[in-house]
Amino acid sequence: MRIDCHSHIEIPEAVSLLPQNSDPLSSVSPKSKLIQEQLTLSLKDQLENPERRIADMEEMRLDLSVISIAPPHFYYNLDGEVAVAFTQRQNNRLAEIVRAYPGKFIGMATVPLQNVKAAAAEMERAVLDLNLKGVEVGSNIRGRYLGDPLFWPFYEKVAGLDVPIFIHPRDVAGSERLKDFYFGNLIGNPLDTTIAAAHIIFSGVLDRFPGLKFILSHAGGQLPYICGRFRHGFNVRPECKEFIKKSPLDYVKMFYFDTIAHDSESLRFLISRVGADHVVIGTDYPYDMGDMDPVRSVEELTDLPADQSAKIMGENAASLFKIS
Question: For 273-282, how does the pLDDT look when each residue is reduced to its tens digit (9 = 90+)?
């Protein structure tokens, strides 16, 4: 079974709950904002129509997609009951789609992580009542990165439910300097994923919650390629070992990574660095910065042993999301 672990949908019936001044594209240049608005409009059918998505999956030679909310619709700026209602409406619709097409989709919840208590409660509802199989979170929540102890009660809940956490960049660091040339995505997205993962490592989250399973989007950003620098910092700087006892490289290999590298040599290096048992297929469907032929991306690694290819194509995802 070939399983896409990075695939987005939008829930139009949830948008009606948003304040009138909500703008998910406020951090891009006017030119990129116009392009993105036109792109999103052109992708409406793919983002909202499950049957169109299934047809596209067949063309991409995918058997099952793990669907999650498009990151512009995290809306971590919302507060109070509106935030909870917004995420609940999204999760309810996610669950409806999964129930309607059980052989094609499983779902990852979204949660109002700006309110950790509410996020933990919605996480429990999403898994136990709606049968969603994981959770998608932003790389930072209102500027707080994911190693912050504020989020540890949420991690305790997720660890107890034993579902994976998929990290997707949003509201990226340095966005005010990345507005030109779509750098907020080209550079900012992998950068913020890297910061989020580093924060998780150095803050000791993986020591406190060793059972957590984090999946990093976009092949882990820069993490696989600069983790040697993390190891060196750990060896020479006391502040880098304040909360951890092992080399950062040991923690890097605890993460899972999707295949969206857009380059065979980069993907080959990722697999050599973290192991084929920690890599899963991703598309970022239906966006233009995704990989709409992920099976070919793996097949192009002609020197990859068949057993490792099988793990990446679907076996790892089936284990993570408990797909029988």
Answer: 999 999 999 9
Pick the closest to residue 194 from 218, 161, 160, 166 (CA basis): 218
Q: Residue type for 255, please?
A: F
Read off the pLDDT of residues 53-110 as tens digits, 9 standing for 90 and up: 999 999 999 999 999 999 989 999 999 899 999 999 999 999 999 999 999 999 999 9
The pTM of the whole model exceeds 0.85: yes
Q: Does residue 25 register a pLDDT over 50?
A: no
Q: Could you tell me which residues come within 8 angstroms of residue 120 by beta carbon, excluding any fewer than 6 positions away? A: 111, 153, 154, 156, 157
- Structural domains of the chain, ranges and CATH numbers in brackets: 3-320 (3.20.20.140)
Parallel, antiparallel, or unpaired: how do β-strands 140-141 and 144-145 relate? Answer: antiparallel
Peptide bond into 72 cis (omega under 30): no
